[in-house]
Amino acid sequence: MNERSTLVGNGTEQARIARTSCGLAKALLLTGSLLIWPASQASAQEAAQVEAQDGQLEEIVVTAQKREQSAQSTPIAITAISGDALVRAGIKSSNDLADLTPGLRISPVFGAGNIPNIAIRGVGLNDFRDYHESPSAVYVDEVYKGALASLDFQLFDINRVEVLKGPQGTLFGRNATGGLIHYITKKPTDELDGFLRAGGGSFGDVNLEGAVGGPLGTGVSARISAMYHRNSGIQQNQNTAAGAQDGNKVDLYAFRGQLKFKMSDNATLLLSGETSHNRNNGGNPYRYAPSFFGADGLARVDTANRDIVVGTSDLNNINVSPGLFVNSDYNAGTARLDVDLGGVELVSISNYQHFKKNQQQDCDSAPAVFCITQYTSNTKQYSQELRLQGKGDAFTWNLGAYYFNLQTDGTQTLAGPVAGFFFGTASGTTAFDTQTKSWALFGQFEYKLAPTLTFNGGLRYTQDKKDMSQTFLLGVVPGGIVYDSTTIGALAKQDTDNVSYLAKLVWEPSDNVLLYGGVSSGYKAGTFNSGFGPVAPANYSVKPEKLTSYEVGFKTEFGDRRHRLNGAVFYYDYKDSQAFVYRNLNQLLFNADAKVTGGELEYSGYWTDALLITAGVSVLDTKVKNVQDGSGAIRDRKMVLAPDFTANASARYTVDLSNSGSLAFQVDGNYSSSIFFDNLNQPGLSEGSTFLLNGRVAWTSANKEFEVAAFVKNITNKVNLIYAFDLTGDLGYIQQSYRTPRTFGASLTVNF
Q1: Contact at 8 Å (CB) between 123 and 136?
Q2: Integer distance in angstroms from the first to the last C-alpha of the chain?
Q3: Is 33:25 a contact under the CB 8 Å cutoff?
Q4: DSSP annotation of 103
Q5: Per DSSP, what are the bridge partners of residue 631?
Q6: Within the chain, how many helices (H) and strands (E) appear?
Q7: Which DSSP letter does residue 343 get?
Q8: Highest mean pLDDT out of 4-13, 46-55, 434-443, 575-584
Q9: Are 181 and 165 in contact, with CB atoms under 8 Å apart?
């Protein structure tokens, strides 16, 4: 029995997973009543700048290989979603992006404006320590975002989003084990343009967004973008005590400014800065669900008494203490230099980010002040990328170097009477300081072996150095318990390196067909464990994880470019995946090997010149090997947020009103089979199959200057579990968060 297996959980039997019927899946796809712009290429219909003509699908332009090219010519499984499509789907937060993307799941660990668990094809991180990094990376304008809590942000003035599936270890590299999400903002242009949008809806939702850009003078252009979003909270607090607030509020504003200088005919400098601030004075509370351990040692919800604390069966109602909040502040600046050296392009991207969070939680999820948790974090990040890239008749290449520096310090405190129960003192605080320094050299190329056959290859060498010091201030040990290089020696440091690679054959037998197949790898650096108390030194350090992917896929267009069908199948050999379990007040990652097999199929097409249908499916079979629970049983488990089957689709019908403009009717939605929220696959931390349906109608003026829209989200008012956390062993309950119920809203947009 190995050490990594003995670290996890309690229970002896694997929970049975409900499976979806083929008939239902086909019905969802054929009716086109599921999610708007879901498929990788289907989703991207509006990502290109050129409108489709006469019912033809437009060309999709992406930068998945750090240069502009058609998505249909890019041998990667990509979901590209335009900014217009995000607006039409009512997507305001990065957390909602999964509703549009097969193979992607995003689950907010704490709630709105906090740490999300992002899983691409099942590869994610289910921990909530602020110094960790996600294995499914997030980039904005080619800049990596390290701080976990900064990955939940409001979307505004977005050009498009690209979801790259599978390891991107050569060109992107940094922790892109499962893939990455890349947000591309709208840039300054040489012509004046802009928009204003005002919207509102249920739960007192107010959303204001606007941007203006254009030339400032010879060789200089600019763009200013801003947004404000607030609501009164989707969780209705039943506590009548003074100061008790509804939960999961948003009160956020953000601003982005960009200046573009054409320094010469061959050189361009883009300077950008962004700031955002969120003040949620209701916090991100959970709903209380009493629980118990079954005969197999796995946690289950006591459904007969589920509502005993909250006092109502409405799953978005809570009953928690006053004084909860989540405050966050984000500031970033980027300088991008592009220089044409005569057939070779030099690109330099320099970025600095500063993210701060201060949070107080009611960890007993009840009106009595019994268990309070507090989290603070302060993250500073600097990155620098330099690369040369060129293209010839038969050879296209990228060479680059990358440096990354991330420092996160903060505290995690357990207070209230519960602290006395566990620590014998009024509170217990863990103070931590982590420093990560990483550098990499990378290269990727494409070489035409024949007019229709291309070989893609790439290598990336990465070295990561990570130091961590922690002090556990329990009040019973003078000076606290210190973990650093002076007390635990080499365990407080990590120095690892890795070589990621790509080898792929691409065959284009005709202008409308592309086939690809090959192997690629990804890597995520190691990390450290911690919690509200000291961790056993043997479990303190967590090894890096490595993933090798074998994938084949195809991309095709037919019917005079009226239809597009793309697909891929893949197999992952996942070594030392960083799985998670909560044990004895500590968040513990452990290394466990895993296997993932799956496939995706995506379609978009004009059935008539006025009717656009999109559809996508994703199938996954995941297995984390030899996980032991508290009863001693060792068995394979399913990965977190890895449904066996998902499907999404949309139908959009446009009515031409001639000189009076146009009306667009849209219905979209998605389906998912059951998922688990923990690596032990406990029945109390799972959700069965879910279905979400949305609708929207919009009038657009003939000159496209005005749009008036009305929408309803979650038409059938399904309130599904979106996250759960187990405290059965400590306090006898499970914490639960639920999807927003049915909401209505409207918006007015003015373009100029």
Answers
A1: yes
A2: 67
A3: no
A4: T
A5: none
A6: 5, 44
A7: S
A8: 434-443
A9: no
**Sign, CA torsion 80/83/89/90:** positive
Say what the pTM is: 0.91
Q: Say which residues have a Cβ less than 8 Å from residue 27's Cβ, sequence separation at least 6.
A: none
Enumerate residues 6+ apart whose C-beta is below 8 A from 597.
570, 571, 572, 620, 621
402 contacts 456 by C-beta, under 8 angstroms: no
Rounded Cα gap, residues 329 and 144, in angstroms:
18
Q: Please tell me the predicted confidence (pLDDT) of residue 128.
A: 85
Encoded tokens for 280 = 């949620």
User: Does 647 have pLDDT greater than 60?
Assistant: yes
Strand pairing report for 77-82 and 158-165: antiparallel
Question: How many structural domains does the chain have?
Answer: 1
Residue 32 binned pLDDT confidence (cut-offs 50, 70, 90): very low
387: tokens are 């690369």
3-state secondary structure of 84: helix
Euclidean distance between CA atoms 717 and 697, whole angstroms = 19
**pLDDT at res. 193:** 95
What residues are paired with 577 via a beta bridge?
592
Please say whether the beta carbons of 633 and 11 come within 8 A.
yes
Domain extent at residue 523:
3-751
For the chain, give the mean pLDDT.
90
**Distance between CA atoms of 160 and 182, rounded to whole angstroms?**
9
- Give Cα separations from 643 to 122, 593, 621, 676, 689 (angstroms): 8, 19, 8, 8, 9
State the CB neighbour count (10 A cutoff) for residue 388.
Answer: 16
Contact at 8 Å (CB) between 273 and 333? yes
Q: What is the pLDDT of residues 695-742, one digit of tens each?
A: 999 999 999 999 999 999 999 999 999 999 999 988 999 999 999 999
Q: Report pLDDT digits (tens) over 356-414.
A: 999 999 999 999 899 999 999 999 999 999 999 999 889 999 999 999 999 999 999 99
Give the H or E element holding residue 729: helix 728-731
Structural tokens at position 397: 């290449």
C-alpha to C-alpha distance for 687 and 673, rounded to whole angstroms: 9
pLDDT at 297 over 70: yes
- Could you tell me which of 280, 272, 286 has the C-alpha nearest to residue 235? 286
Strands 706-713 and 513-524: unpaired
Lowest-pLDDT range, 44-48, 51-55, 409-413, 645-649? Answer: 44-48
Give residues with Cβ within 8 angstroms of 342, minimum separation 6.
none
Dihedral of the alpha carbons of 359, 362, 367, 371, in degrees to the nearest 10: -130
Chain segment 445-480, per-residue pLDDT in tens? 999 999 999 999 999 999 999 999 999 887 666 678
Q: Which two tokens stand for residue 499?
A: 């070589």
Count of CB atoms within 10 A of residue 146's CB?
A: 26
Answer with the residue of higher pLDDT: 425 or 646.
646
Residue found under tokens 């100061």? 243
Q: Do the Cβ atoms of 439 and 499 come closer than 8 Å?
A: no
Task: Identify the band that residue 29 occupies on the pLDDT scale cut at 50, 70 and 90.
Answer: very low
Specify the CATH number for the domain of residue 515.
2.40.170.20
Average pLDDT, integer, range 592-621: 95
* C-beta separation of 276 from 153 below 8 A: yes
Alpha-carbon gap, residue 331 to 255, rounded angstroms: 10
Sequence length of the chain is: 752
CA-based nearest residue to 230, from 199, 256, 257, 255: 199
pLDDT at 2: 42
What are phi and psi for residue 105, nearest 5 degrees?
Answer: -130, 135
| Residue found by looking up tokens 């190691």 in the block | 526
Tokens in use for 125? 């991180």
Q: How far from chain centre, in Å, is Cα 145? A: 11
